[in-house]
Amino acid sequence: MTFVKVTKNKAYFKRFQVKYRRRREGKTDYRARKRLITQDKNKYNSPKYRLVVRITNKQVICQIAYAEIDGDKILAAAYSSELPRYGWTIGLKNYSAAYATGLLVGRRVLQKLGLDEDYEGNTEVNGEVVKTESNGRTYFVEEVADEKRPFRAYLDVGLRTTTTGHRVFGALKGAADAGLDIPHTEKRFPGYNRDDKSYDAEVHRDRIFAVHIGDHMKELEEDDPDMLASHYAKYTEAGISGDDIEELVEKVHEAIREDPSPAAKKEVSIDKKYKKPAKRSLQQRKARVAQKKAYAASKDE
């Protein structure tokens, strides 16, 4: 193997082309983005929709977006910070919350487009992947309506590492159960075993309904009450025990399906007005300078 000396001379820097700003900032994977937004030419100006899932330090964000020349446009959005409206007040970024947020954005966009009655989604949540064949094409819904085809979107995970059981797939499953047509398999869901290529849907269902949290709470209640008090302080404060969680999540799902519309914006009236300080005259400015000089001179003495 030969070693070549890297020469970064004037000619190199004259021809250097910087990468896109969001690549330099480490925010966008343009290789993935290109494939997510490129639309077939025979579909003309039809938008290609994406289910954008982002997880912050405090919440889960789900958006239905499509790309245009001047940037992405958001068709619908849901935040896990909205879940307290539906009865889920704590653990707003766990797997169960990600599923509920995906369910919320899915029902919301279908309601907005008038497809919510044609595509009710999977009302009996069991963790199974739902799909059907129609006219030689696979749709990831239970049944295709006669007049309207399902709303198709593609999962956009951003820079997240797509490990098995990741919360982004919880949001995907929630949106799919809401009635959206999102291509996916069970290979990244909790309960999938890569060695024998088997899928246990019951394991996934338990994650969706936060059964694992309830089991851990009950285990700590028996073995270590002090750890329960420290680890699940917010749950205890809200009066939620390990036996209540599954039923609570079911009620949250029902409430989301009843009314997925966003909350009305609060109108804020601003009473106070900010008044800029009046501009000083030349005489005032000179007097101020003289005052500062006199103060500095008195300090030196």
Automatic annotation (TrEMBL):
Domain Large ribosomal subunit protein uL18 C-terminal eukaryotes: 245-296
Entry keyword annotation includes Ribonucleoprotein: yes
GO biological process terms on file: ribosomal large subunit assembly; translation
SUPFAM superfamilies registered for this protein in UniProt: Translational machinery components
Localization in the cell: Cytoplasm
Residues in coiled coil: none
Region (Disordered): 255-301
Chief location bin: cytoplasm
GO terms of molecular function: 5S rRNA binding; structural constituent of ribosome
Biased composition range(s): Basic residues: 273-291
Keyword Cytoplasm annotated: yes
UniProt KW keywords: Cytoplasm, Ribonucleoprotein, Ribosomal protein
Biased composition annotated in UniProt, kind: Basic and acidic residues: 255-272
A UniProt-annotated Pfam family: Ribosomal_L5e
GO cellular component, as recorded: cytosolic large ribosomal subunit
PANTHER family with a match to the protein in the record: LARGE RIBOSOMAL SUBUNIT PROTEIN UL18 (PTHR23410:SF12), RIBOSOMAL PROTEIN L5-RELATED (PTHR23410)
HAMAP family for this protein: Ribosomal_uL18_A
Entry's family note: Belongs to the universal ribosomal protein uL18 family.
Name recorded for this polypeptide: Large ribosomal subunit protein uL18 C-terminal eukaryotes domain-containing protein
Record lineage: Eukaryota, Sar, Stramenopiles, Oomycota, Peronosporomycetes
